[in-house]
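Inverse folding, one chain.
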């Protein structure tokens, strides 16, 4: 007899089971999915992100592109320091020594963003209390398949008396 944990592990190894679970998770967490896909792209293929951004700012393959932020910066700041940030970005745009430097920085940023998003998601999950049917507040780890947060009870049954007058309360006379 196979115990439940072994069966769950076997389903994860099955390609269809894994794909189904990943798709379900992605549907349930669209923001996190987009963030992880984006940071994964940045980590795996930084050129797909870096080249268009550098081009848009004005660091082109043939040098600076006229009428862009890069030329405005250079015109307002005078001579550019060799091997400085601006020169490294210009080199990266032209495919020179700046490419591995900029790609490394972008990859590190992507990895940091992914790690931070994972940490924030874990922290938020722990801090979100959920109401349970017995009136206590849970840790947020329980699954609630009902459509309300009152354990399947209607709002009126759960004690919502916002529009009901209390017969024991005396109206105030001023």
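Residues assigned per position:
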């Amino acid at each position: 007899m196979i115990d439940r944990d072994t069966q769950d592990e076997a389903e994860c190894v099955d390609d269809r089971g894994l794909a189904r679970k990943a798709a379900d998770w992605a549907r349930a967490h669209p923001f996190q999915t987009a963030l992880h896909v984006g940071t994964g792209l940045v980590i795996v293929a930084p050129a797909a992100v870096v080249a268009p951004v550098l081009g848009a700012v004005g660091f082109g393959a043939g040098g600076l592109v006229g009428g862009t932020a890069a030329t405005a910066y250079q015109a307002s700041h005078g001579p550019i320091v060799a091997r400085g940030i601006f020169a490294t970005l210009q080199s990266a745009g032209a495919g020179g020594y700046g490419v591995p430097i900029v790609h490394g920085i972008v990859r590190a940023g992507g990895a940091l963003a992914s790690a931070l998003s994972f940490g924030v998601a874990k922290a938020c999950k722990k801090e979100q209390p959920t109401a349970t049917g017995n009136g206590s507040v849970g840790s947020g780890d329980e699954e609630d398949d009902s459509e309300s947060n009152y354990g399947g009870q209607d709002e009126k049954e759960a004690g919502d008396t916002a529009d009901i007058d209390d017969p024991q309360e005396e109206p105030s006379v001023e």
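DSSP finds seven helices and four strands in the chain. Helices lie at 4-13, 15-28, 30-44, 47-57, 69-77, 85-93, 98-127.
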